[in-house]
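One such given next:
>
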Amino acid sequence: MASRSAARTKEQIEEEKELVALLKSQMDTAQFDRYEVWHRQSIKPQDVKRHINSVTSQSCPTNVHQMMQVVCKMYLGDIVEAARDIQQEWIDSGEKQTEEEDGEFEPSNELSKYRRQAPLRPDHLREAYRRRKAAGENGGALGSLMVWNQQTQNGEERFAVRAGGRRLFR
């Protein structure tokens, strides 16, 4: 059974295309370049499928893999945006972003010239992940275990420790 959002008419599809074209026409070149890069990037479906199968110990429907691709892409985008903010904080505080003697960054391409920032370092990404985890977004450090901990405090066992071969997806 298809969802209601998937059942769109031709008019709705055309209207959506027109709105996207209008949005693109209002972007400057730097915004358009970022938009194009974002839409070209993708996570390989076979990697997502392999990971889901290893975690659940069973195969899953295609729509589960597609949904996880979207979630992963949005999560990675949030982490990169947070890392850019952290990089800017560190630049504002006076920390050197390059190993050059004068600390100046030589842009390698047009987009780098626009940003006037050095590339992200692993430290920026680690700090973004650490802050996200500490802030409690998406469950924080406990992640999906929060439900487990809340429901097992009363001494009643409601969840199996392992799936034990039980099918999760049909």
Observations:
- The first helix runs from residue 10 to 25.
